[in-house]
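Open question from group meeting: does this chain pack into something compact, or does most of it stay loose? Before anyone orders reagents, we agreed to write out a predicted structure and look at it together. Recording both the input and the output here so the notebook holds the full record.
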Amino acid sequence: MPNVGPFELVIVLVVALIVLGPKRLPEVGRSLGNGIREFKDSIQGAPEHEDVHLDVEEPPKPVTTAAATAPTAPDADEQQS
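Structure tokens returned:
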């Protein structure tokens, strides 16, 4: 297997810069790093990142409308009495 030296790395980086452009290159590098990290964690069986805490919002309160709080009409049986 051939060794990858500094000259080859420079060529790969220049080609990536030309193809992707200076704006997308950091974005692609970041996503590639995240993918490698997730792959490594899945192979090692490492737990998910424990330092990340998700803020769980409370469920929304039920909305009450005037129709829901209005008294109900009496039944027909009760009106005949």
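Observations to bring back to the group:
The longest helix spans residues 25-44.
The mean pLDDT is 77.
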